[in-house]
Amino acid sequence: MKKMIIILLVLIALPLVAPAPGQAIPAFARKYGFNCMMCHTAYPKLNDWGQRYRDNGYQLPGQQGKEKTVFDSHTPIALRTATGFNGYTAKPNKDASSQTTGGFGLKGLDLLAAGVLHKNISVLLIYTPRIDEPFADYTGSSESQPGALESASIIFSNVIEDALNLRVGRFEPAYHLFSSKRSYYLVSPYDVYEYPALGGNYLFGDNQIGLEATGHFDMGFKYGAGVVNGTGAAPDNNKFKDVYLALSQTIGAGDGQSAGHRIGAFVYYGKQPMIAPIDTLGTMPPPVSPTGEYTGCDNKPSYRYGGAASLNWKTFNLAAMYMRGLDDKAFNIMDATKNYEYDGGFVELDYAGMFNNRFVASALYNWVAPPEYDDMSGKLSAYSALVRCYLGDWTAVNVALHGEYSYRKLELGETTMTENLYSMLVDFAF
Questions:
Q1: d(Cα 108, Cα 145) in Å, to the nearest integer?
Q2: What is the pTM of this model?
Q3: Pair 272, 299: CB distance under 8 Å
Q4: Could you give the angle at the alpha carbon of 108 between the alpha carbons of 103 and 111, nearest 5°?
Q5: What are the pLDDT digits (tens) for 50-89?
Q6: How many separate helices (H) and strands (E) can be counted in the chain?
Q7: Domain of residue 253, residue span
Q8: What is the 8-class DSSP label of residue 38?
Q9: How many beta carbons lie within 10 A of that of residue 105, not counting itself?
Q10: For the domain that residue 380 is a member of, what is the CATH number?
Q11: Contact 353, 337 (CB under 8 A)
Q12: Spatial contact of 226 and 204, defined as CB atoms under 8 Å apart
């Protein structure tokens, strides 16, 4: 513990003594000559202006049609990764001895390209390339990062000014009332986002493929509604599409990101097949669409619904989310007489300040509670904390020294497993 305290103090002190040379700045900031803090409280978390810029199809509000397109300037491309030391301690149950390991590692690589194609027409691409080395674990049996087209969408903004924008492709859906993609945390996820759905082959935190309509109004009201496959990045497997609706209201000046207060709610409804297609003659494989879909049948429903709040006071932000999930009893392998119901959520307190938000501190509590009869999943509670210290001059605050710690407890019947994870990383983008 004493060593950890010393390390954290060093992380805090470094920005005060380190030199600050000029550096290249990431995609959108390069385009406009802005400081990264124009759109971010501290990257990657958006502030109110950054959220409005995103909502406006990556165009400066009021400057539609005057923007340089990707044909008039360099294609805005950015890369992000993190490297450093990770430590891990696990205790399988209260009577077992602790097991500890640790080592230096990399946190993958994100490639982002985005920009304006034409007035009110924009594009966003995020690609995570497959990385075979370093390997995922000591077995060396799989890649450390699978290749994925995480986002690939085209945005038609201001179809009705502010009130209707359309996004088509793969994107982070509006029912993510808090973005897991723009969280300060590099190791600790929003666990309720990662809980597997029995009634579908996706995670709540997955980006989805489909069509989404969004809009915002002067009184602070926003909506998002979409039609998606409901299978993450996989091809769909039935004729039914999943639908969702998210609503939010901002109280006071701002957008609820770094000023004002925002409350919101969402509901998600989907269907997944219980039976794969069967060729009645038994002589041919079941029919599959040329684009990968098959004709699953005996479809059963799943629901997700919840609410969230984002409260701001000076440079503090308190975020809270609750979600409940329900999958039809047909999916419930533990008790086929009951619908599978679970709930979970998180509470996060962030602080940003000191010399243009160069210091960030955060505390996060996660929990997920499956039904009592589920003896396979277990009740999860997790406590996490981090500090981030940003380096660079006014034009390029794009390097962060990152210290993160998590304590996780999984209760599975009479067995309780505890884990301690800590990371000391350098997170950088350019």
A1: 6
A2: 0.88
A3: yes
A4: 160
A5: 899 889 888 888 778 778 788 787 778 889 999 999 999 9
A6: 3, 19
A7: 2-429
A8: G
A9: 15
A10: 2.40.160.10
A11: no
A12: no
In which element (H, E) is residue 6 found? helix 2-17
DSSP letters of 144-194? SB--EEEEEEEEEEEEETTTEEEEEEEE--TT-SS-STT-S-SS---GGGG
Q: Are 312 and 260 in contact (CB under 8 A)?
A: yes
Euclidean distance between the first and the last CA atom of the chain, given in angstroms as a whole number: 34
Instruction: Tell me the per-residue pLDDT of 317-349, one tens digit each, with 9 for 90 and over.
Output: 999 999 999 999 998 888 889 999 999 999 999
**Which amino acid appears at position 268 of this protein?**
Y
Q: Which amino acid is at 27?
A: A
Number of domains in the chain: 1
CB burial string 237-259: b at 16+ within 10 A, e below: bbebebbbbbbbebeeebbbbbb
What DSSP string describes 354-399?
Answer: STTT-EEEEEEEEEEE--TT-TTT-EEEEEEEEEEEEES-TT---E
Q: Which of 132, 127, 131, 181 is nearest to 150 (CA)?
A: 127
Respond yes or no on whether the N-terminal peptide bond of residue 92 is cis (omega within 30° of 0). no
Identify the sign of the CA torsion 36, 42, 46, 48: negative
Token pair for residue 242? 């999943």
The phi, psi pair for 96, rounded to 5°, reads -90, 160
